[in-house]
Amino acid sequence: MSRKTVIAGNWKMNKTPDEAAALINEMKPAADKAACDVVLCVPYVDLPAAVEAAKGSKISIGAENVHWEESGAFTGEISAPMLNALGVQYAIVGHSERRQYFGETNETVNKRTAAALAHGLTVLLCVGETLEEREKGITFDVIAIQLKVALAGISAEAFKNVIIAYEPVWAIGTGKTATAEQANEVNKFIRDTVAALYGKEAAEETTVQYGGSMNAKNAAELLAKPDVDGGLIGGASLKPADFAVILEAASK
């Protein structure tokens, strides 16, 4: 099995450029020791400082979103070529906060994914159900639709640059976490869905992260599960000591 373990931090709307550089410099020793891929997704204004600070280390830098057009009248948006020009390698697409607060839909997630892949970015594609959807027993239905629409028209070759992050919406920033068994169950379903779309070999090679409040205390248990190939880390990615614990757990 050749799939990579990837730990990606999502800083959300935190840190100025100077603060970002300082935090990355603090994180570099732990990242350089890690036996997994390390990505930090930072606010747009921090990207130049982050790329510069990460040079010569194992840390790759990602954006927290990307637009589907290369340029145009899209006030406040950032295109994939703009990210390319900064040396950014990754982009988060479809995060639940984008869906919840900014009108992101499965269709716009698809357009953003296609644009990012067309310009050589690796996509961290987020899927996940709300608490209401889980309680109704439609978790798998919701995630299957999110995946199938998001990946519509994405070739098997392009899909090699997609990492999928399962982030149960009810476990983001709430202090609630899916149990390791719940996380693994949904991650396995995601892998089965990928197998139906792209074949078993592609599914086995796809990195499927868990992204619902993974932290220093629960990372080892979550990452020990066979279908949890890393994490999309929120709050803990702003705390160097905690992030180091997660990287160590992912390296075992």
Notes on the protein architecture:
The chain is an alpha/beta fold. It has one domain: TIM Barrel. The protein contains twelve helices and eight strands. It has helices at about 15-35, 45-55, 80-85, 95-100, 105-120, 130-135, 140-150, 155-160, 180-200, 200-205, 220-225, 240-250; strands at about 5-10, 35-40, 60-65, 90-95, 120-125, 160-165, 210, 230-235. An eight-stranded parallel beta sheet has the order 7-6-5-4-3-2-1-8. Helix 1 (about 15-35) runs parallel beside helix 12 and helix 5 crosses helix 7 (about 140-150). It is globular. The model has no long low-confidence stretch (mean pLDDT about 95). Pathway: Carbohydrate degradation; glycolysis; D-glyceraldehyde 3-phosphate from glycerone phosphate: step 1/1; Carbohydrate biosynthesis; gluconeogenesis.
Structural class: alpha/beta
Shape type: globular
Q: Gyration radius, to the nearest Å?
A: 17 Å
CATH superfamily (homologous) name? Aldolase class I
CATH topology: TIM Barrel
Q: Major sheet: order of its strands?
A: 7-6-5-4-3-2-1-8
CATH-scheme architecture: Alpha-Beta Barrel
- Give the number of DSSP strands: 8
Q: Give the termini distance in whole angstroms.
A: 16 Å
Q: Tell me the strand percentage band.
A: 15-25%
Largest sheet: 8 strands, parallel
Number of separate domains: 1
Short description:
This protein has twelve helices and eight strands. By secondary structure, it is of the alpha/beta class. It has one domain (6-250): Aldolase class I (TIM Barrel, Alpha-Beta Barrel), CATH 3.20.20.70.
